[in-house]
Amino acid sequence: MTPECPRCGAALSSLSLGAATAVACEECGYADVEADHSGEPELAESWADALARFEENQ
Which domain covers residue 18, as residue numbers? Predict the structure, then answer.
């Protein structure tokens, strides 16, 4: 039994690299690949702070 894509319902293909295996959908591009989203987001530097830092280094 071939698993179905959770996005579009098409048949999923199995992909393997070494000991790791994942499934992907050739129709919509869905990929069942685990990702680590646990990191803390970095705060972006404001334009005002960037320009002030630039002026300090001149």
Answer: 1-33
